[in-house]
User: Fold these one by one.
Assistant:
Number 1:
Amino acid sequence: MYFNEEFETLPRPALEALQLKRLQVVVERVYANVPFYKDSFDKAGLKPADVRSLEDLQRFPFTTKQNMRDSYPYGLFAAPLEEVVRIHASSGTTGKPTVVGYTQKDIETWSELMARSFMAAGAHRGDIIHNAYGYGLFTGGLGAHYGAERLGASVIPISGGNTKRQIMIMQDFGSTVLTCTPSYSLFMAEEASAAGIDFKKLKLRIGIFGAEPWSEAMRGEIEAKLNLSAIDIYGLSEIMGPGVAIECIEAKKGLHIWEDHFIPEIIDPATGLRLPDGELGELVITTITKQGIPLIRYRTRDITSITYEPCVCGRTHARINRMCGRSDDMLIIRGVNVFPSQIESILVGIEGVEPHYLLIVDRKDNLDTLEVHVEVDEGIFSDEIKILQLLSKRIEKEIKDVLGITCTAKLVEPKTLQRSEGKATRVIDKRKF
Ligand code: DLL
């Protein structure tokens, strides 16, 4: 079922023709309205008229998060503030937040793309959407909210926090769709089970999880514990917010990126050159319909691959694979590149180990060290020391076998690692560079 069948199933030639037309308009628009783009195109010796085909996009310079920071807060806006009806910001780990502005038309587009995303995930009118993404400057809460309303579903704007109350509301209001971060969904499952509430008795059918990396193994864990079908949703504030790409419930294999509004590219983060389909690299996105803050070739830092193969759901839009990390989250431990999600997949695959973990990276005597703190289930923790020792040895061995790095596994008691109602912290890097 589609929300906008015509656009979601546009044959590729028509989709690409539309992309080109929209790309030409947006490039003109930023060149005329945003001094940063005028300078950067001029420096590259390019004029808007140089966009004659979609291939020409590759000749244009990238936009980075640093460029956005340098123009804090409104420098990259292409619309006057009088036309901006909403402002969001994403908190970075360093310095000032990244600020984005939406015109009324941007809000309408976002709502439609979120409504399309809900429908692709299997939600529809009549659903009760329990929206536990945070409301505020973060785009998750309001983005999902407007999309749910546009879909015609009933949205519960619960936001994050007060987990006990969340569970009561889900139970009493008969929520059928849950939207929150994947880590928070597991926390909810834990709290419910501690309160003697069985998720299997709730009416939840679908969970739409994103805003942080998670693994296929974690999907299995969530589906089993919450008794629902877990769908991966991707987005970022700079490009729009949630709903840039989503898995369809029919295939659950790759996230359709709404190509009538975004042009995706996968590049080698080191050389900046485009990579062939299917190869892992950094996702770069050009927004082709945004008015408030259109971005040309924005480097997301998210690592994925792309496929244009047809999907069983009938949507013609390309699919990006589950994110396997960010180029700036990638840890280099004794020269080996590791994404936290790779360690997560290993941990979740080991019986008795819970999907709550923290990686602590440090440097001792000029050598990198990795400690993997991970919770184990109650039963195991109360077992003999010997069993615990065997389990930590097994974790260390599997990480060594799969990733080639030596680590120390520290098993901790259930519920001792910090929980988050939003994005979880998975890594503490104590090394000084
Ligand atoms: O996290 C928007 C969002 C809200 C997406 C709700 C999905 C659901 P930011 O706070 O700007 O926006 O963070 C964006 O989060 O560049 C990725 O690194 C990461 N991220 C988002 N979705 C996923 C996902 C929102 N499904 C950053 N898998 C992005 C992995 C994700 N990482």
Number 2:
Amino acid sequence: MTTIEFSNELKWGAATASYQIEGAAHEDGRSPSIWDTFSHTPGNVKNGDHGDQACNSYHLYKEDIQHLKELGVDLYRFSISWSRVMPEGTGSLNEKGVAYYRSLIEELLNHNIKPMITLYHWDLPQTLQDRGGWENRATIVAFEEYAEAMFKEFGGQVKSWITINEPWCASFLSNYLGIHAPGKKDLQAAVDVSHHLLTAHGKAVQSFREIVPDGEIGYAPNIGWLEPFSADVEDQDACRRGMLWQKEWFMDPVFKGSYPEELILLFEKQNAFLKIEEGDLELISQPIDFMGINYYTGSLGRHQENAGLFQVEEIPLDYRQTDIGWPIYADGFYKALTDLKETYGDIPIYITENGACYNHGVEDGKVNDQERIDYLKQHLTSLYRAIKAGVSIKGYIVWSLLDNFEWAEGYEKRFGIIHVNFETFERTRKESYYWYKNTIEKQRFEIT
Ligand code: JJW
């Protein structure tokens, strides 16, 4: 038997996001976001699912916080719905929307749980999309206004903030691959959106320093690790290109103040041009307090002429995948974390998301999700190894507290450590919930 033991400094948490859990889409003055529009357009989301009700956490947040309390987490990561608090995208605040988050934060603090707020978890107000969305630089100004309003409202009590969640998804997956809202397939649009998201991040960091000088702020890029299939230069190059797209494109500007030249040229060959205005890179590269890393999966990468823009074909390392079809690659988590330190230096890191999709149902009042426990053990072992290798890890936040609306995959794909019945909204703690609770309490777990 081997014991993996963590120090008391490591913070534990659980995460959710507004559109995925809140529901109450038409209540108390909330306006539609791009995800309302996208999910209500046939063909975009599996089974025609949408977030109108989701987990009904807008009404059940006290019950959810009770689950968090008993879980024993130090922090809860959630996101604010921009269109709930600022329905017109800019301008006046919706008091009822603001009141909801004020109550949520109060309830968390009363239970001694630290709130960590994500400002942008993909639900852009539709009214801004109607004016070009993130392709339009006016949205950067709107985001700054929204962020400032939130810092002023909540910065007194909430000290941990994330500007943008998974900018790769919000730009390329959404505007080039067409899989997420707004569902475009336009490389130029995606390149513009990626740069504007990062610039908006920079603007928000700048405001944050003024308004919440004692707080910490970062952003949360996602990484899927690509390990070269062979020692062939072709495979090595293919993986490098694949990683440039996910990693360097979204991290070099923040930590080095530049975009990777190789990728700029590759986009140019496709007639997509990076348009930077004076001052953008200075804004983007302002120091941040931590990097949030979302890690789920990784693969072997092999050069393949016809495999997309980057000619990299992904091959699962072994034959186990989670129920969403993502290969399990816990060693890639260790590799990604140690690589980040080598590339960008000793930046404090929160694991802002890690978790697994398994669709177990309730049987005799129980959800036996042993596969999820195994996944968490493997990934926490990699995290432990990364800490031993000198990577500064501030916290680990599991995705997700609840089964929820898994974007284009709808409700069928379950990531929660708590099961949700989407007809009755009944919550049932899974075995992984109890395993995680025990791990947090003891600060250790055993591998047998
Ligand atoms: C990639 C699939 C074709 C969320 C992707 C689809 C097809 C080339 C989970 N993280 O629900 C990535 N999630 O809200 C944020 N992360 O392409 C939180 N990444 O590719 C979770 C989906 C995702 C994806 C989903």
Number 3:
Amino acid sequence: MSSSRPVLFLVSAEAGCVRADPDTPHVSVMDLGVTRGDGIFETISVCDGRAQALEPHLARFARSARLLDLPEPDLDLYRRAVLAAIEAHDDVAELYVKTVMTRGIEGTGVPTGWAYAAEAGDFARARTEGIRAVTLDRGLRHDVAQTSPWLLQGAKTLSYAVNRAALREAERRDADDVIFTSSDGYVLEGPTANVILRRGDTLVTPRTDQGILAGTTQASVFDFAHSIGLATEYAVVPVAELASADALWLVSSVRQAVPINSLDGVEREIDAELSARMTAYLLGRRE
Ligand code: PLP
């Protein structure tokens, strides 16, 4: 567990970006973020004091707001809050900053916003030894974003109860994490991560128009791949291709890249060398 104290900034059009005590309540029990999970968030990795992929995170925050018909977040204010929270936090190797914007107190139409920095957990073991994953059917077709945009698949909303339930199901199945699949048999994403497969000299990830989040870490992993001469591909990936892939990873902010060492109870080889290079690249990102 972390020993340093989180740093909180409240964000509002009225007051701007104001430091606040993280141990004091700031959100109303009437806030739609609390009562309906109606809002959006981002979680940004901070390594050696530098926020990683900050601009892609802010752009995705704005995109999520559009998908939920929320007011446009003032990205300058949120950017300022993120940087100020990092600056004010104890100097530790790995932090994360979470930005949140809810629809606000019912009837006011005024969103509630904040950003806080907190020390990240220790993921060294997962990054080197890997994790056990299970596939779970999300119960939606891979074209859900086109057929039913009101389901908000692909938006980063505060309604993560389903994602947490999937992780508890993984635990019941003696696993650490989940790969969601579509009801029509395609690979989607994890509850908090994107999936990457290696096929020979190509890294493949599910196409992001399939109701999944366009990952900032996945984009960085593709930059890394290009830098070492690997090809990359966004694809519609049938579930059977997970078993035949040369290696698998879940990639996300904060935990970064973790290899999958077992899928649905079947042990798999991890690509330890490529994983180590990927992790070094991700942790070394300067922006
Ligand atoms: N997919 C989902 C559902 C997520 O919640 C996340 C991150 O939390 C990701 C993918 C990975 O996104 P990123 O790499 O930008 O953290």
Number 4:
Amino acid sequence: MSTILVTGGFGYIGSHTCLELLKKGENLLIIDSLENSSINIKLKINNLLSKNNDNKNGKLVFRKGDIRNKIWLKNIFEEFKLLEIPIKTVFHFAGLKSVEESTKLPLKYWDVNVNGTINLLNIMSENDCFNIIFSSSAMIYKQNISKPFKENSELSPTNPYAFTKFTIENILQELYSSAPHKWRIANLRYFNPVGAHTSGQLGDNPTKRPANLFPAIINSLQNDNIELSIFGKDWPTNDGTCVRDFIHIMDLANAHIAANDLLISEDPQLLSLNIGTGFGTSVLEIIKTFEKVNNCSIKYKFDQRRAGDVPFIVADNSYAIKRLNWIPKKSLKDICRDTWNWAFKTEIKIN
Ligand code: NAD
């Protein structure tokens, strides 16, 4: 028996992916500093698991800590080896993700994202753990085109956050080249993950001021309809607002499961895959759809463009669909409905 280590597993993407892994019977060790999440996520995951009555749920162990803490991380790998449930796979979600914050605090981003990952990779390597699924980002592509990005499109990050993701991908490439017979690596380049678990129990629950569109919509609706800021109205898009490829969080979670299955079933390799829907939607279109699906009204205002922002980010997902035998199934309506249910129709939120 072995263990899957999930870094940042109580965060938005990690928590939804962990639930699916546990339902599949995988035993997980989640580590998280709780910098942008909460211990209550453990209760929510366990609660959802208890409703899954096919009895094959895996076990969830949680340890609070920081991936930059070498001794702590080493001890954890050691401990699980001694228990004869060694860590053999890592889903690496832990990191900081705000483009805007990264332009103000670049050193913090390099330290957590890059130094934290180097630390993790060193310890994985020392413990014969060579299987990693890394949370990369579409922000690493060169942002000068208005057509969907392919995996081989030019890479040229334009902000510190994107640079950290680009750098980690480079490190992983070099690591793979140093021992191609050992490493199984999947860089999943996420486009815009949104929505929530259909139960309304899990969703995007940042402890920091929301920087992403859907948490910002909810924040506005929950606070007497304070005006939502739309950053820029003169981008070179149809309605002047940014266009993004919004993918439902459960489609994204399932892409992780499919990526792990693929890595395990084939020879060692390094893969980079676009995880998006292939469709672009503007910020204004999202607001209109959200209002229609949920019969509500969102007040908004136009603000200055944000530092580091770009107008058009849409995936060509054909390679991921082919390699992963996976396809995004959820619609924009599902995204808007599930986000609403998560925010307004569930039991009282714990945090
Ligand atoms: P999140 O902030 O919700 O989750 C990240 C988790 O990592 C949090 O629980 C946080 O507490 C934890 N964490 C942060 N620093 C840590 C550290 N030093 N040690 C241990 N834990 C730490 O973010 P998310 O939306 O779930 O994103 C997960 C990953 O996907 C991130 O690496 C992010 O950069 C990447 N990503 C996210 C998006 C997005 O739009 N959400 C898009 C592309 C890529």
